[in-house]
């Protein structure tokens, strides 16, 4: 049983405190849904989980080992889907997907690509260049990417953007299949994606005012606002 | 190593599909070089005197102009983010991308250089040295330039900025590159200059992947 | 509110230092100038022109000193990831660039009567010019981002890369210069500097260095205060609607929470 957890995470983006004191824990087969208004830090939290962003405080562990200690191992086990599809306009869908498979060192790559394309129902597009794809088809290509190769953790940032209702069902099925094979899914979404009893993490609860947070973190004195001047006057 | 070859192959394929990029770099190089005779006059011995410097300066500018596409498009469409997250060390991927950049810009410049040398009336005994010097110098240009290209990701006015960052760092390559050709033209051995250029190439080869990967990670934050 | 009254570590350390440094700067530069302009002998070849040197040499020293300082800050930011190092590097750059420009200007003012030309492609002048370009590149990079923190970080990386490159640039320029330069140029570093000239030179160098630290402290303070203001604006303290509540303590907390729960 794999175990993915984070404790007391604080995230600072461009001098703005996004959230503070977030903790979460997930076991194999779990799903966590991130909720919150715009700017609550859903994307930031997913990026922190992926290791793209280092948290201001707190740590994230996989099987009780900090992910910052072995980034390559963490990157090998996760699949991240961001806002952008990363589909090159001049490469065919298959060529686009091939790079990501090669980087993960996937064996039987062509077969895996075929399977992934079948799951997302875009196999007929495999030779079409990226520039002729609609935005929904690009999104499906990006979704096909996360099916290629072995992974234990999916971090999906708005996976259903640009998809129609039917495709959303496919995404739900993908997530269910992945969970039943022991994967952990953490996702944010605006529409209701049909996922079986996900744990809901509401980031609005962790939006603490900057001033309050600073009062408790004196080591931050030199780096951020300190209303000492104003108070003294 | 697989990751290195994969990114190299992908970048080369991209460059071939968007063939205009490589051609444009060479065209820029040729046009810039041909501007000099208009500026200094068509007198053959003056042109012969400044040929090596002119060729190097034009090559520098051409290499610099193509830097933006090393990381910029990948940054904009989210590819760079995924490369940072792939289970291959980012340093290796950066090296692959730089090699692809050199193969699609540096190499064509080396092939075009003798042609421009002929047009500028350069003496024939400088040709071989010119090509060897460029063979050692242009990879260093791509490597140094990659740092600049990575540093400006997400900046306003990136194109102008990269020239301000990178051109001062190109000066050693220019000095020794042009110096080697000049020595050969004077009939002196250019070994010393070429050895120093080799040293510069090795230093940049050792240092730039780390600096560039660091800059890319910063840009992802 | 009492917890707010704790001044930050930087202010705590630099506050008592600042008046002393400022005083030292004033005294050192004043006495240095007195010795330089009145109490030092004329050069038998250069006449009064030699007095330019008392500005030129300290400015050149400061140009190099500031770049080394920036590189050290860059290294510290890389190793310890302390944002104060980024801020120091960022605050140093314009000071160093100004001193480098001052060095080039005084050098060319000196060169005109001595060499009969405003500019020669001498190895030192050329190196200083390239140093100025490196400064300008750094300043442009730091200011090119919407997020100032990102700019500072990128700048620190650039300062470090530049510092590795500076010796290579210096070496190649020297090499280039010996190859191309006719040996007729008078070099400023004579075999020895007269002791009567050493004193004002030393005073001026010390004075300039103190001046740099005064400026650095003021600029870092400015940057820290600007960050505070930005963060306070983001935290909703300056919301116009809560003007009438502004007198009541902690009104911003209520304001923010109300906003957050919307």
From TrEMBL, chain A:
Keywords: ATP-binding, Cytochrome c-type biogenesis, Membrane, Nucleotide-binding, Translocase, Transport. Transmembrane segments: none annotated. GO terms for biological process: cytochrome complex assembly. SUPFAM superfamilies: P-loop containing nucleoside triphosphate hydrolases (SSF52540). InterPro entries: AAA+_ATPase, ABC_transporter-like_ATP-bd, ABC_transptr_haem_export_CcmA, P-loop_NTPase. Residues 4-232 form the ABC transporter domain. One of its GO terms (molecular function) is ATP hydrolysis activity. NCBIfam families: ccmA. This is Cytochrome C biogenesis protein CcmA. It comes from Thalassospira profundimaris. The lineage of its organism: Bacteria, Pseudomonadati, Pseudomonadota, Alphaproteobacteria, Rhodospirillales.
TrEMBL record, chain B:
Coiled coil: none annotated. The keyword Transport applies. GO terms for cellular component: plasma membrane. GO terms for molecular function: heme transmembrane transporter activity. Keywords: Cell inner membrane, Cell membrane, Cytochrome c-type biogenesis, Membrane, Transmembrane, Transmembrane helix, Transport. It is a multi-pass membrane protein. It is found in: Cell inner membrane. The keyword Transmembrane helix applies. Pfam families: CcmB (PF03379). GO terms for biological process: cytochrome c biosynthetic process; cytochrome complex assembly. InterPro entries: Cyt_c_biogenesis_CcmB, Cyt_c_CcmB_bac. Required for the export of heme to the periplasm for the biogenesis of c-type cytochromes. This is Heme exporter protein B.
UniProtKB/TrEMBL annotation, chain C:
InterPro entries: Cyt_c_assembly (IPR002541), Cyt_c_biogenesis_CcmC (IPR003557), Cyt_c_biogenesis_CcsA/CcmC (IPR045062). One of its GO terms (cellular component) is plasma membrane. Residues 23-180 form the Cytochrome c assembly protein domain. It is a multi-pass membrane protein. Its main location: membrane. The keyword Kinase does not apply. One of its GO terms (biological process) is cytochrome complex assembly. It is found in: Cell inner membrane; Membrane. One of its GO terms (molecular function) is heme transmembrane transporter activity. The chain crosses the membrane at residues 20-39, 59-80, 92-111, 123-145, 157-177, 197-218. Keywords: Cell inner membrane, Cell membrane, Cytochrome c-type biogenesis, Membrane, Transmembrane, Transmembrane helix, Transport. PANTHER family: CYTOCHROME B_B6 PROTEIN-RELATED, HEME EXPORTER PROTEIN C. Belongs to the CcmC/CycZ/HelC family. Required for the export of heme to the periplasm for the biogenesis of c-type cytochromes. This is Heme exporter protein C.
């Amino acid at each position: 049983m794999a175990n993915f957890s984070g404790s007391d995470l604080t995230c600072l983006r461009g001098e703005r405190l996004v959230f503070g004191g977030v903790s979460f824990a997930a076991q194999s087969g779990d799903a966590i849904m991130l909720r919150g208004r715009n700017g609550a830090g859903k994307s930031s939290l997913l990026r922190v989980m992926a290791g793209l962003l280092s948290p201001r405080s707190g740590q994230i562990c996989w099987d009780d080992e900090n992910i910052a200690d072995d980034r390559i191992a963490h990157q090998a086990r996760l699949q991240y889907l961001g806002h952008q599809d990363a589909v090159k306009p001049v490469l065919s869908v298959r060529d686009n997907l091939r790079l990501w498979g090669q980087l993960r060192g996937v064996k039987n790559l062509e077969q895996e690509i075929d399977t992934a394309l079948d799951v997302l129902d875009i196999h007929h597009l495999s030779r079409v260049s990226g520039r002729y794809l609609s935005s929904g088809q690009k999104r499906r290509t990006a979704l096909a990417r996360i099916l290629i190769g072995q992974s234990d953790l999916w971090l999906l940032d708005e996976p259903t953007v640009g998809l129609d209702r039917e495709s959303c069902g496919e995404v739900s099925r993908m997530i269910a299949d992945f969970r039943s094979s022991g994967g952990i899914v953490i996702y944010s979404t605006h529409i209701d994606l049909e996922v079986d009893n996900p744990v809901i993490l509401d980031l609005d609860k962790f939006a603490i005012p900057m001033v309050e947070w600073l009062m408790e973190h004196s080591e931050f004195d030199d780096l951020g606002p300190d209303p000492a001047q104003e108070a003294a006057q | 190593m697989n990751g290195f070859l994969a990114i190299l192959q992908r970048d080369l394929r991209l460059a071939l599909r968007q063939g205009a990029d490589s051609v444009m770099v060479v065209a820029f190089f040729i046009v810039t070089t041909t501007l000099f005779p208009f500026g200094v006059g068509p007198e053959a011995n003056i042109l012969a005197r400044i040929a090596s410097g002119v060729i190097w300066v034009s090559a520098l500018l051409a290499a610099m102009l193509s830097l933006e596409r090393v990381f910029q498009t990948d940054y904009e469409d989210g590819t760079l983010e995924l490369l940072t997250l792939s289970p291959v060390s980012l340093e290796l991927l950066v090296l692959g991308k730089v090699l692809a950049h050199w193969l699609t810009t540096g190499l064509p410049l080396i092939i075009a250089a003798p042609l421009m040398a002929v047009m500028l009336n350069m003496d024939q005994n400088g040709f071989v040295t010119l090509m060897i010097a460029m063979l050692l110098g242009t990879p260093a240009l791509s490597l140094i330039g990659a740092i600049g290209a990575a540093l400006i990701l997400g900046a306003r006015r990136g194109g102008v900025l990269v020239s301000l960052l990178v051109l001062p760092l190109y000066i050693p390559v220019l000095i020794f590159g042009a110096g080697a050709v000049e020595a050969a033209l004077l009939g002196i051995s250019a070994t010393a200059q070429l050895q120093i250029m080799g040293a510069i190439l090795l230093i940049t080869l050792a240092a730039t992947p780390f600096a560039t990967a660091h800059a890319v990670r910063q840009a992802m934050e | 509110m009492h917890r707010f009254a704790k001044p930050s570590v930087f202010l705590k350390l630099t506050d008592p230092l600042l008046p002393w440094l400022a005083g030292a700067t004033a005294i050192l530069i004043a006495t240095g100038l007195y010795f330089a302009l009145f109490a030092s002998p004329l050069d038998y070849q250069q006449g009064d022109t030699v007095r330019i040197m008392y500005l030129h040499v300290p400015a050149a020293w400061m140009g190099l000193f500031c770049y080394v300082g920036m590189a050290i800050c860059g290294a510290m930011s890389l190793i310890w990831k302390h944002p104060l190092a980024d801020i120091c590097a960022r605050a140093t750059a314009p000071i160093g660039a100004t001193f480098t420009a001052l060095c080039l200007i005084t050098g060319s003012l000196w060169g005109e009567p001595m060499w009969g030309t405003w500019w020669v492609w001498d190895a030192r002048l050329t190196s200083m010019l390239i140093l100025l370009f490196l400064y300008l590149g750094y300043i442009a990079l730091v200011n090119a981002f919407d997020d100032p923190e990102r700019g500072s970080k990128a700048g620190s990386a650039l300062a470090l890369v530049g510092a590795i490159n500076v010796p290579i640039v210096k070496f190649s320029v020297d090499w280039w210069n010996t190859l191309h330069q006719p040996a007729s140029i008078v070099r400023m570093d004579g075999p020895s500097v007269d002791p009567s000239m050493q004193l004002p030179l030393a005073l001026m160098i010390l004075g300039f260095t103190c001046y740099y630290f005064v400026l650095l402290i003021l600029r870092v303070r400015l940057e820290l205060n600007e960050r505070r203001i930005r963060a306070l604006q983001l935290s909703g303290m300056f919301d116009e609607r809560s003007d009438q509540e502004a007198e009541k303590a902690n009104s911003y907390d209520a304001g923010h929470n109300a906003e957050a729960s919307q």
